[in-house]
Amino acid sequence: MARLGRYLLEERLGSGAFATVWRGYDPELDSAVAVKVLAENWAADGGVCERFLAEARLLRRIAHPAVVRVHDVGTAYGDDGFARPYFVMDLVEGGTLESRVGALPPAEALALAAESAEAVQVLHDEGVLHRDVKPSNLLVDTSGGTPRVLVADLGSAKLLADASMLTMVTGSPAYMAPEQASNLDGFDARADVYAMGAVTYQLLSGRLPYDVDSPAAARTRPDVPPPPIADEVGLPTQLDDVLSRALAVQPADRFASSADLAAALRDLAAGRTVSLPRRRTAGWPLVPVLLVALVLFVVSGAIAWMLG
C-alpha cells in the first residue's frame, strides 16, 4: 500500500490528464478520505502546480454541503526525489453520476439532475464558473439515504469576474457551450447551464444530445434542438422544450441561471407546467426594423410632398 505524507493510498478512484484521485486512509484521524495527486509528469510545471493549488483553495473557500470540501494540502517526495503535490478531500462513497447514466428511473434521474443544477448554482453564487460540468465531475453521496449531489473537480474553474478575459479553451467538448468553445467574446454562467442541459439529457436517455467530439465541433454545432426523448423515457413532453432551451446555441435563449433550470426540472418531476424563458425574435431585431420602416415612411412622404 502506497503512502503519501501521512495518508495511505488504498484504491484508485479515477484519473485524468493532470491528476489521479485515490481512496485513502488517514491513520491519525482514523478516517477514510479522497486524495487527489498531481501527475508526476506535471509536477515540475510551475503553472500546472499553481492551477492545482488554486483548485484546492477554491474547494476550501466554498464551504457548502453541495461542494466537496478540502481538508489538507501537501507535497510528498518519493525515493526518486520528485515532488508529488496532493490535496485531501471528503470521500463521497456513492461514486459519480457517470455510473448512473441511462440506468435510473426517470423520476430519480430528474431529481438527480435538479440536484446537480442546484449544486452548480452554488458555485455561481460564490462567483465561480466551473467550465467542465459533466457526469464524472458530479458526485453522489448516498450516506444519508436520499442521494445528494456534490460538485467536484474545479481544475478548470475560474472566477466569473474573469470569464471575459479567458483565452484558453478548456472543458469537455461534448458538454461545451458554443461560446465557450470559441471564447471570442467571453462567456458567463450560462455556459455551465448548457453543460447541465447535456448532463440531464444524457442522464435520462443514456446518450449525448449532439455528436460533438472537439471544440471545433462544439463551436459550429447546428442551431437545432436535440432529438426529443420525452416519450422515450415516459416523461411530459415539456421535457423536450426544457432541454432545448438549456441547450440553445445562443446564451440569451437559455435559462438565465442554473437555479432556473433546476426549478424547471423540479416542476417536471412534480407534474407542474414549466415556465420557459422567451426566445429571441427570429430575423431582424424588432426595434431596428421599426426604425427602418419609420425612415422609409418619412422619406417617401417627403418625396411625395416635393413632387406634389
Explain how this protein is built.
This protein is α+β, with helices and mostly antiparallel strands. It folds into two domains: 2-89, Phosphorylase Kinase, domain 1; 97-270, Transferase(Phosphotransferase) domain 1 (Transferase(Phosphotransferase), domain 1, Orthogonal Bundle). The protein contains nine helices and ten strands. Strands 1-2-3-4-6-5 form a six-stranded antiparallel sheet, with helices on one face. It has a two-stranded antiparallel sheet with strand order 7-10. A two-stranded antiparallel sheet has the order 8-9. Helix 7 (238-246) packs antiparallel against helix 8 (258-270). The longest helix has 22 residues, at 286-307. The protein is globular, with a radius of gyration of 24 Å. It starts with a strand and ends with a helix. The relative contact order is 0.10. Mean pLDDT is 87; it is low at 281-295.
CATH class categorisation of the largest domain: Mainly Alpha
Helix content: 25-40%
Q: Tell me the overall shape.
A: globular
Q: Could you list the spans in which at least 5 consecutive residues all have pLDDT below 50?
A: 281-295
Describe the largest sheet: 6 strands, antiparallel
Strand order of the largest sheet: 1-2-3-4-6-5
Number of domains: 2
Approximately what portion of the residues adopt beta-strand conformation? Answer: 15-25%
Task: Tell me, rounded to a whole number, the average pLDDT.
Answer: 87
Give the distance, in angstroms, between the N- and C-terminal Cα atoms: 99 Å
Give me the strand/helix succession: EEEEHEEHEEEEHHHHHHH
The CATH homologous superfamily of the largest domain is called Transferase(Phosphotransferase) domain 1
Radius of gyration equals 24 Å
CATH architecture of the largest domain: Orthogonal Bundle
CATH fold name of the largest domain, please?
Transferase(Phosphotransferase), domain 1
> With helices defined by DSSP (H or I, 4 residues minimum), what is the helix count?
9
Structural category is alpha+beta
